[in-house]
Design brief:
The chain is an alpha/beta fold and 270 residues long. The chain is 16% helix and 27% strand. The strands form 3 sheets. A 7-stranded mixed barrel has the order 4-10-9-7-5-11-12. Helix 5 (180-188) packs parallel to helix 6.
Length: 270
């Protein structure tokens, strides 16, 4: 029943009173009963990018006192896929949507966080298979949602070598990821999932060279979220996810500001 409860609570408890008499969405947001979590790493010269992708950098900085007062403005350059970012379906599926074509209703949804950090135990060779998630089977509520897998990898984000598992001699990477089996399961058994995220650099394990998880999920129309910041405790259920990528026309992806809006008290029963 766990996934059914998770999805139901995401929809029912956070926004249950939206349609009630004398109650508006703005009141719910501002009444102090919600907690807002920022699940995005900052973009700066330390932001982690895939090897050979142009990293984030300011190309020009202006900060000065002028005759009419203070003025500041920066210019920057960066690849689409680095730091906390979204992969649009077109990234690995020729017929898929670009990032600017993803409907807004698929970007603000119930959020499920699956914490499998204790199973990973900091093992860069860990690959998530379906048997690790047996407790989720056969409980599809059918409501659209986004799901993020927490491998416990965010704590390494400040160490690029460790986070990517870089072997510069061999030219390889090594970090946890999802298996092809899990990707197929999500896109067939759980068709309500519209976005999949991880707190690692890629949906696929770092050792992958063919990226089957990307290809399976994106050919099914799902978007990906990578380098999600999960270094604090966020409720696994009861939250609403807000995934707002940079609205790049014809973009294969883009920098992502990802948030979780959660009730201060997470219900445990219907």
């Amino acid at each position: 029943m766990r996934l059914k409860i998770i999805v139901f609570m995401c929809v029912a408890n956070v926004w249950a009173n939206v349609g009630a008499d004398n109650c508006k969405l703005n009141d719910i947001i501002s009444n102090g009963d919600l907690v807002f979590y920022d699940l995005s790493h900052k973009f700066d010269d330390k932001t982690i990018y895939w090897p050979y992708v142009k990293p984030f950098a300011f190309t020009k900085k202006t900060a000065e006192n002028r005759e009419d007062g203070w003025y500041a403005s920066n210019e920057f350059e960066a690849g689409e896929h680095g730091g906390t970012h979204m992969d649009a379906p077109f990234h690995f599926y020729k017929e898929g949507k670009f990032v600017d074509e993803i409907p807004m209703e698929k970007l603000i949804l119930p959020l499920i966080i699956v914490d499998i950090g204790s199973r990973v135990n900091d093992d860069p060779n860990f690959v998530l298979n379906k048997h690790h998630l047996d407790y989720l089977l056969n409980d599809n509520n059918g409501k659209p949602c986004m799901i993020i897998f927490k491998f416990g990898w965010s704590k390494f984000y400040g160490d690029k070598q460790k986070y990517l598992g870089m072997n510069e001699t061999a030219g390889t990477l090594n970090f946890p990821g999802l298996s092809q089996e899990v990707a197929e399961w999500i896109t067939t058994s759980y068709k309500n999932v519209v976005g999949v995220g991880v707190d690692t650099p890629s949906l696929d394990p770092g050792s992958s060279t063919t990226f089957p998880v990307h290809r399976i999920t994106m050919s099914a129309g799902l978007y990906g979220m990578e380098n999600v910041k999960l270094d604090t405790t966020v409720p696994e259920y009861g939250c609403t996810g807000v995934a707002m990528p940079m609205n790049i026309a014809k973009g294969t992806g883009g920098p992502l500001r990802l948030a979780a809006i959660c009730p201060k008290t997470v219900p445990t029963t219907f």
